[in-house]
Amino acid sequence: MALDSGKLTLPTSVATAIINKAKDTSTIATLSPSTPQIFANADNLVFNGNSEAEVVEEGATKSSYEQDVTTLTAKRFKVQTTTRVTNELQWADEDNQLEIIKAIQEDQAAAMGRALDYVIYHAVSPKTGDVLTGYDKLSEKAVQVTSGEDDISNLDALVDAVNDVYDINGIALSKTWASVLRKLRVPATGMRFYPEIPMNLQVGTLDGITAATSGTVNGRKAKEATNVLAFLGDFNLIKWGMVRDLTAELIPYGDPDQTGVDLKAHNQVAYRTEAVYAYTVLDANGFAVLKSPAAAEGE
Description:
Layout: H1 27-31, E1 43-47, E2 69-73, E3 75-86, H2 94-122, H3 138-141, E4 143-146, H4 151-162, E5 170-173, H5 175-183, E6 205-206, E7 209-213, E8 228-233, E9 238-251, E10 268-281, E11 287-291, H6 293-298
Parallel strand pairs: 4-11, 5-7
Antiparallel strand pairs: 1-2, 3-10, 5-8, 6-7, 8-11, 9-10
């Protein structure tokens, strides 16, 4: 029997309404420049220069010092995100189709960036919130600082924990603590103590150093609360990059994410983005992490 195409109504256009919620971003990508990575196990030779000039008296013997060189291997992890949409999208006219596909890919790329923070800071998979095995947590390896009632003193305590050892070049703030700092007022005048923190909390600098704010800092999607408020230190100590750049593909059939729901049977298609990261934290002591007392007591 021939198909009666008169009974089919195909949409000639799709009206797309894309809701742009406030997206968490990667603070590490903001504060630490990426470096090229290779797929082989890459070793980082860490040179800690500790030489000092010696004043030698006439006729005196010159001395030397021993230079230690340590080796750290970059850790790799693969990330992916798969988005299912109705296959009616494929019927839409080209302009509308590109609009929503672009939105999907931008959403997935942002998710890839957030994964970098979740793995390095908390060793957590952001989609499930589960802790990953075999990965160190910077939130545990960094110098620990417990927050008190005075948040100006808390910031000073972070600086004291790192200062005189490494140069401080960045601070990553949780949105919770950024909001607290924004509300601080000078008692005598009522002026805000940190006027550089805007209403959207996306601060670019704080007290003279580069800053970034994100829900990744406290691990919003982690199943177990980290109670992390901020990381401060030398973000050049985090060496990271993509082993394989972002790749995107259209999956028209099958069950790509093993949910038991076949794409074809439910008139769906899937868009998948993948990437492979490699990273090394050269010295966790170059960072201080501020935590609320609840987290500190539980460790």
